Amino acid sequence: MTAAGAARLRAELQELKTVERSRITAAIAEARAHGDLKENAEYHAAREQQSFTEGRIAEIESKLANAQVIDISMIPASDKVVFGSTVRLTEEESEEEKRYQIVGEDEADIKAGKISFNSPIARALIGKFVGDIVDVQTPGGIKTYEVIDVQYL
User: Fold this and answer.
1) Structurally, how many domains does the chain consist of?
2) CA nearest 1: which of 79, 71, 88, 97?
3) What is the mean pLDDT of residues 51-67?
4) Are 102 and 115 spatial neighbours (Cβ–Cβ below 8 Å)?
5) Domain shared by 62 and 88, yes or no
């Protein structure tokens, strides 16, 4: 994952551990004060939220422990498309220009221009250079792109 993606996960983890856990613990305590736990919907909802939060904490901790964090700003800039780089493309048929950053699966957000390194377009682009023509198999058929620019931001 990129350094920015790892930082976002660390921030979410900190929020869950400090803020959410405290809020949920307070909600459970308040629900317990209402009496019979078998028929207490507030208590069961708080316990369910606690379970979800603890699961998410474990998931984030596992991802961070197993992640290989790549700081793209530390890689010498070149014209080669690599993980973390931002690529500007022109679609040959429509001449539409697109811009994507190649990121880890957890960071992918097509609306923000971030695509997973496992996506068909990223797999086709990695290792290519500025000026290369790339054919990408998409659900709508083969699309041809030209690599216009590669940035290491």
Assistant:
1) 2
2) 71
3) 94
4) yes
5) no
